[in-house]
Design a protein that fits this description.
Strand order of the largest sheet: 6-7-8-3-9-10
Bound molecules: adenosine-5'-triphosphate, magnesium ion
CATH topology of the largest domain: Rossmann fold
Radius of gyration: 23 Å
Oligomer: single chain
Number of domains: 2
Mean pLDDT: 88
CATH superfamily of the largest domain: P-loop containing nucleotide triphosphate hydrolases
CATH architecture of the largest domain: 3-Layer(aba) Sandwich
Shape: globular
């Protein structure tokens, strides 16, 4: 079989970083090729080369065997290459339909934009991917998952031969993920070549036909998925074998730090009650949309519960703003770390030390040295890959930006940390580092709430798990009751078989 798209000897550097050095990649019609590699391996960079956003310094791109130059994104689109990027490029002020058709709207008589066709075709496209969004809804009113679906619809509106998805399932719920897999099958059946970037091995083995591995900007290998094992693939990616076992925890559960009682919200959640102790890791499992993040946001003072009480160390606590939450020792690391997290344009070390500045209170050089030390301590524990801590956060790879945000909040030495999907978008090697650090901090007395949709992570890390469904707590399990079946059943509202 001849590839539709073939890259050879592609190199791309940035000041101080060789993001890609002489890599190759082949994409075949009707096949899904998974591109795997650690955070910073060069995956998103090759996507930008493929879509004409970056110009490589060396190498060739051929489409159907003919060498091409993608000088602009328009050139790539014309050649039938379309991408759903890791950080979606959409316009918050425009509607769903406008976002889908921006730059290539259907036109009617006299070449005028046909708004009706725009809306009806938008609905059609969205239906084909199982999305049910109002085409007139303004984007800023949508959640991340819905925005992602709009990005997918936009990519499909360009009748592409090559569809690139850079971590497409990172922001989606189970249901939406399954719909995305079906969509990938449909695209395959239509003969499209698909490049699929993911850190989730289960999905790579489920949907990919082929794989290509990059490590530190270099091509390591490629082949058929059926001919490789997960262990071998991880070995190629990381250059060593990775223990996927969760860290042994020193269970050192102490006094109660947090008690939430009768938390209600007009639309998002009802009757939320739970406790959290020092040294405990409390998992929150549920499907996306179950209201887990909304509860956490209320605890952090981002939203307000309409009713309910919160106690810290047995005393009633009032949390009206995030500043008040932080003052009480509660911090929240949001799921949407891109937007709510890193301050782009600011160096890594300052991003980390930003909320902890009160602790490094001395002036001048001493302070700078302390800031650096703080940043170094925390980022190294989270396996951050960066040229230096002076580097602009905005120039880090997606996964590495996330590590900076986690480091920043941990560095405030909170009493309670709420981590929303802590390892989403983080590669398999670094994931183990994040888990180990979490376990160690818990052993030192930190109380952790971990919202996660990954069952192995929830089961592997938590002392206790609360399951939410449709805004309510539907189960609380610990010990032997903590099984995948119990969690899935509770989350989906399936009754135990009699
Ligand atoms: N615009 C840029 N300026 C400077 N360095 C950059 C830029 N874009 C990417 N890099 C660097 O290039 C390297 C590759 O980054 P890339 O985003 O391609 O990684 P990735 O494989 O997509 O990682 P992740 O899994 O975290 O998304 C990283 O070291 C990153 O910091
Ligand atoms: Mg990336």
């Amino acid at each position: 079989m001849t590839p539709v798209l073939s890259l050879r000897g592609i190199s791309k550097s940035f000041p101080g970083v060789m993001a890609l050095s002489g890599v190759q990649l082949d994409l075949y019609p009707g096949q899904v090729t998974a591109l795997v590699g650690e955070n910073g391996a060069g995956k998103s960079t090759i996507v930008k080369v493929l879509t004409g956003i970056y110009q490589p310094e060396e190498g060739t791109i051929s489409v159907d065997g003919t060498a091409m130059r993608f000088a602009t994104p328009g050139d790539a689109a014309k050649a039938g290459v379309t991408a759903i990027h890791q950080e979606t490029v959409l316009f918050d002020e425009l509607t769903v339909a406008e976002n889908i058709w921006l730059g290539h709207a259907p036109r009617g008589a006299f070449g005028l934009i046909d708004r009706r066709a725009m809306r009806s075709k938008a609905v059609e496209l969205m239906r084909s991917i199982g999305a049910d969004l109002d085409p007139d809804e303004v984007l800023k009113d949508l959640g991340i998952a819905s925005k992602h679906l709009v990005a997918i619809a936009r990519a499909l509106s360009i009748d592409a031969r090559v569809v690139i998805m850079d971590e497409p399932t990172a922001a989606l719920s189970h249901k939406e993920i399954n719909e995305l897999y079906e969509l990938v099958e449909t695209l395959k059946a239509q003969g499209k070549a698909i490049l699929f970037i993911s850190h989730k091995f289960d999905e790579i083995f489920r949907i990919a036909d082929r794989y290509t591995v990059f490590r530190d900007g270099q091509f390591v290998g490629e082949g058929k998925i059926v001919e490789v094992s997960e262990t071998a693939l991880v070995q190629m990616m990381v250059g060593r074998s990775v223990d996927q076992i969760f860290p042994k925890r020193t269970h050192n559960v102490g006094a109660e730090v947090l008690r939430v009682a009768g938390y209600n919200h007009p639309t998002e959640f009802a009757d939320i009650a739970f406790t959290l102790r020092r040294g405990e890791i409390l998992g929150f499992y549920g499907l996306v949309g179950a209201g887990r993040s909304e509860v956490m946001q209320a605890l952090f003072g981002i939203t307000k519960p309409s009713r309910g009480a919160c106690m810290i160390d047995g005393k009633a606590a009032i949390i009206r703003t995030t500043t008040e939450a932080i003052a009480q020792g509660i911090v929240y690391v949001p799921e949407d770390r891109g937007r709510q997290g890193a301050v782009k344009g600011m160096p890594i070390f300052q991003n980390v030390s930003l909320p902890s500045l009160a602790q490094t209170s001395r002036g001048g050089f001493l302070r700078l040295a302390e800031e650096f030390k703080l940043a170094r301590d925390y980022t190294s524990r989270l396996d951050l890959r960066a040229a230096s801590l002076d580097q602009d956060v905005g120039l880090l790879s997606g996964g590495n930006q996330q590590k900076v945000v986690i480091a920043k909040w941990l560095a405030t030495k909170p009493r309670v940390i709420i981590l929303d999907e802590p390892t989403k978008g983080i590669d398999i090697g670094s994931k183990a580092a994040v888990h180990e650090f979490m376990a160690e901090l818990a052993a030192q007395g930190l109380a952790v709430i971990m919202v996660s949709s990954e069952i192995p992570e929830v089961l592997g890390m938590s002392d206790r798990v609360i399951v939410m469904r449709e805004g309510r707590i539907v189960a609380e399990v610990s010990g032997e009751q903590m099984t995948p079946e119990t969690l899935v059943r509770a989350a989906a509202g399936i009754q135990e078989a009699a």
